[in-house]
Write a structure and sequence with these properties.
- The protein is of the alpha/beta class.
- It has 18 helices and 21 strands.
- Strands 1, 2, 3, 8, 9, 10, 11, 19 and 20 form a nine-stranded mixed beta sheet that branches.
- A hairpin with a 3-residue loop joins strand 19 and strand 20.
- Helix 1 runs parallel beside helix 4, helix 1 runs parallel beside helix 10 and helix 10 runs antiparallel to helix 11.
- It is globular, with a radius of gyration of 25 Å.
Amino acid sequence: MEEKSLREVDVLIIGAGLAGLSLARQLLLADPGKRILMVDRQAEIPPERQKVGEATVQVSGYYFSRVLDLEEHLLREHYLKYNLRFHWKTGRGDGAYEDYSQSYIRTLSNIATYQLDRNKLETEILRLSRESPGFELIHPATGLSVELSEDGPHSFQFEAGGRRIAGRATWVVDASGRNRFLVRREKLERPSPIDHGSSFLWVDGLLDPERLTGLDRKAVRVRPERSALGHLPTFLATNHFCGEGFWLWVIPLHGKTSLGLVYDAAKISSKEVGTAEKLVEWICREFPLFARDLPQRKILHHSGFTSFAYDGGQTISPSRWALVGEACRFSDPLYSPGGDLIAINNTVIADANLTAGREELAAKVRLYDPLARAVFEAYVPSYAVSYATLGDQECFSLRYAWELTVYFAFYVFPFINDLLTDRAFLPGFLRRFGRLGPINQGIHRLLAAYYEWKKENVALAAPEPVFFDFTEIGALRAAEKTFYKIGLGAEESRRVLDDQLANLEELARWTYAHVSAAVLDDPRATANAAYVRGIDVGDLRFDPEAMAARLEESCRETSETYAWCFDVPCMARFRTERLVPMAEPAQAVG
């Protein structure tokens, strides 16, 4: 075998998927002279099979379009996304689109998001990178070995095209996906509390949920419900059809449609949905409206994971190595966090890569590594604690409004202001984000318990479709206004976050008060000032007896009405028949 002379590069990137390609693009935009060597074990890049992970949200949409300068490509080759839309079966039936309840945001986000054809996007990023003389992709590569150095360049070698290639790299970045090259080598694996699986496929052509209807075309156009739902094409949203511990996505791509089931392994067995045929059968049985269309579609490709969540002990090291994408950690595809984690991790890794001094690099890593962990761990309760709430529109709507308010204020706002690499901003951000942790955990525990209570005490399915726009909750609208606070310095940004932290504490207070009112069937829980002020947002416990006793005590104390800091929606639309009679109110002692 021919031996090649020593190669000297600035960055060795292991893996040519979305995370690695995006990082290379970001580095080359910042420093066109960077010498980047990318290696991948696959013969075809991107592979012929369709790649999953199509949806973006605000951070990832902004990252791909504005940070990576791909806006024109995205608008030409991919669909502009119309938010996320969630659907539940009702007592009216489940055989037509108009029979389902919906929760959604009716207006388009001012930060553009996209439904990605991953294969097209990765092809374009690779094309652009190859225009840089310092970029090289070698594939298929076998026998890769890397020796990490504490102080000096890292050494590597591999085989490709009948040659042995060896060299040294200042940085090594693992973007190898689920192969997790450095995680396994450095023993950085951590267990995940999430045990979820997925089964997904692509079908030929556009499967438009709104056409899965018993109405004629005129009746579809003039449905009175459009006054609530709006007129933009429903298929442009990431449509979620929900049940207890599972959800089905429907995502449009040009010329094809992606459908995927994600499920709690305790609720659904992979054997039930592990093939394309079984998945189609399950979808049509669980959501019969799809039987109008899906069985006649040509299936282009099918894949899945029996378990996909995992964690890792580190993201970036002062010894100049890092992990990005699925090589680092992954939770669950609900809300499409994968693209956001790529955006955030790549941004701090790129900044670290451009740092020359070792002491300055170490100071940055002391902030960047806990930042990467914190933004990941904040997602985990959504999947490990309150996943079952997908089975109820009210519980899930409360949960998602909370999560989206956190996301807009503490993820989107700092990212679009380039604050996540600002060392004057980050310490204060991490402190404030840490204060949210116990509240976030408490909200998820509260709503998980409320869902279990509802299963025992009320009929979950609404008799008729219910429509709910998440932005009816004023706290979410207040968080969305941070999209327009641009160009702020560290001190101004901290004041914005202080306002948003107060906004979130008030939202947590309202969520608890609303749950109390629903469980006790007593609207005073959302109105009585003493009761509301007595809610400890750091200790949100679902205890109906304690709620009842404290409410009676509060109402004896005062009749003052609490003035909420934001508009609160009418939640009576979610009330359904009680299965269990109300207990007598608890009697206060003394």
